[in-house]
Task: structure prediction
Amino acid sequence: MKKETYKDFVYLKIPKDEYEKLLKVGVEKGTKTKVISIDDLTRYELTYRMDIENKQNSAIEAHKRKKAKKDIQIYQTLENYYTGLFKSELEHINAYKLSKLAKVNFRTAKRFWEDYNLDYWVKEFEKRGSEALREFKIQELAESFVFGR
Result:
């Protein structure tokens, strides 16, 4: 068949049991053509579209949850780093050191660093300590804490 001949057909995703019913009706009538009502066509299309949308929404939500868990993990590392026992011996932290302390991929830590502007926040953490950490958590990570828990 030529490629152009496929334009003359409509392809549907029909549940198997309903397709078998259509075959039986065609055999009983003695015809090869299957008659499908417009309501059934609409129902099949809506069902298919909803399936696709559900898959996409589930993938988006799974990505948000995964990102939120990493964000929380990195935040807890920052919190432990700046409120720990040895905070007088703190060295300047960067994305590489953060990735090693949080045990996450460097790209993840770097993306976190850039997304949440940690150049500014690290200076605030060093100045104000736990007060700045709480402010960072409320202002920047509110969505992550909603999805991550």
Observations:
- Helices lie at 16-29, 38-83, 95-102, 106-115, 118-128, 130-140, 142-148.
- The mean pLDDT is 82.
- The first helix runs from residue 16 to 29.
- The two ends are 55 Å apart (CA to CA).
